Amino acid sequence: MDHDQHHPPHADRHHDHASPAARHGGVSWSMAMTATLHCLTGCAIGEILGMVIGTALGWGNVPTMVVAIVLAFLFGYSFTLFAVRRAGLGLRAAVKVALAADTVSIAVMELVDNTVVALTPGAMEAELSDGLFWAALLGGFVIAFLITTPVNKWMIGRGKGHAVAHAQHA
């Protein structure tokens, strides 16, 4: 059987909805790592600030983690929001880009990081001055980075996640 009778030519099978990276051989690990590091920076600032606030005020684990997670999302989104606003996007469009670019990445990062902290024996009871507190938190960030990078690579390759923000920078 003739292959072309059953399948349209290659160019007709693919839509132009894919990102330029997806159309041109995929996304580099370097690009995915940069996007993840960008996201992790905002998350880490928010998460650490939340943990410090909750611990310093003597809050329990649940309220401290809730504040840390909320601040992680807030700071994570704000990094992208400021970048795309600087690129000339209006506030409403910039908010949409930040939500599209970072929601999955931050959610994965927060899930992994908080799971690591929660499963590290003694970490939830540790004080700010304890090395265990910082080791669990920083270790969680490292593991979150390693798990989130492939997620971001996959999303960017499909024109989603940080690809949305990168399209606004170009």
How is this structure best described in words?
- By secondary structure, the protein is mainly alpha-helical.
- Helix content is 76%, strand content 0%.
- The protein is built from 8 helices and no strands.
- It has helices at residues 3-6, 10-13, 20-23, 29-56, 61-86, 91-119, 131-157, 162-169.
- α6 packs antiparallel against α8 (162-169).
- The longest helix is centred in the middle third of the chain and has 29 residues, at 91-119.
- The relative contact order is 0.16.
- Mean pLDDT is 81; it is low at 1-25.
Order of helices and strands, N to C? HHHHHHHH
Q: What summary fits the major beta sheet?
A: none
Distance between the termini: 45 Å
Question: What would you call the shape?
Answer: globular
Output the keywords.
170 residues, mainly alpha, 76% helix
How are the SSEs placed, and which strands pair?
Layout: H1 3-6, H2 10-13, H3 20-23, H4 29-56, H5 61-86, H6 91-119, H7 131-157, H8 162-169
Helix pairs in contact: 4-5, 4-6, 4-7, 5-6, 6-7, 6-8
In short:
This protein is mainly α and 170 residues long. It is built from 8 helices and no strands. The model is unreliable at 1-25 (pLDDT under 50).
